[in-house]
Every structure is written in C-alpha cells, then in structure tokens.
C-alpha cells in the first residue's frame, strides 16, 4: 500500500495532510533525475496543468506543453518565462469542447504510441499519465450544447 494512502482516506481540502506533487517528487528523490527524458503535457497553461508543469520541470526532463488558447499561452509564458527557460507550446488545432478535452488526448496517445513503445527499455519504460480535475462534477453535461455556443 502507498505510504500516502492514509492521508487520502480523509481529504479535508487544500492544505490538508495529502502530499503535493512536489513533495512526492522530493520523496522519490526525482529532483534533477529525469535529464534526457521527454514529457508532453496537454493543457499546461493554467490550473492543474500548469502546477503539474512546474513540478515536472523540477525533474529536469524536457517538458513540452500544448495549449488551446494562444493568448493564454502567451500570458502564461510571460508570467513564468523568468522561472522556466525553454517553455515550448504546440498549437492544438482542435478547439471544440469534446475534441479538446477528451478526443484529443486519446488521439495524441495514438500518435505517440509507436514512439513510446520503441523508446522503452527494461530500465526505462515509457509512460502516459493522465491528470484531471474534479471540476466536471460542478455541472451536468450539456448534451444539447457541448461546445458552449449558447
């Protein structure tokens, strides 16, 4: 069982006993240890994606991000460029809600799958990690307007 399991049994919101992603990176002694590895994050210009970007950057892996909004990307880059050199952003052509938030991740994985499998070794496997927030629980699915056109 994970050493963090007990902390997750009774979550009390931000600042409770659950470890942050940075604490886990530090506990696993991964700071600066992923040099030469490549990480691609989808949607890392704000929120949980940006926090994930910050933490993964501490491993010294080459971290890339695609974003939906060029303006948000520029704003994020300006705010964080001093701290993180080499931020790169890939433009995602899918702008629609379902395509961006669901199908694009699956499609990206399908495009990367042959390379991930070819790059894997017994000592260093390839990984795909999906990160999500619970924000979707705050509202029902609007099947009549999935692109939020109204």
From TrEMBL:
Going by the UniProt record, its keywords in alphabetical order are:
Oxidoreductase
An example Gene Ontology molecular-function term: oxidoreductase activity
Q: Does the keyword Phosphoprotein apply?
A: no
Q: Which domain of life is it from?
A: Eukaryota
The cross-references to InterPro entries, in alphabetical order and at most eight, read:
NAD(P)-bd_dom_sf (IPR036291)
What is stated as this protein's family in its record?
Belongs to the short-chain dehydrogenases/reductases (SDR) family.
| Name of the protein described by the UniProt record | Oxyreductase
This protein's species is: Colletotrichum orchidophilum
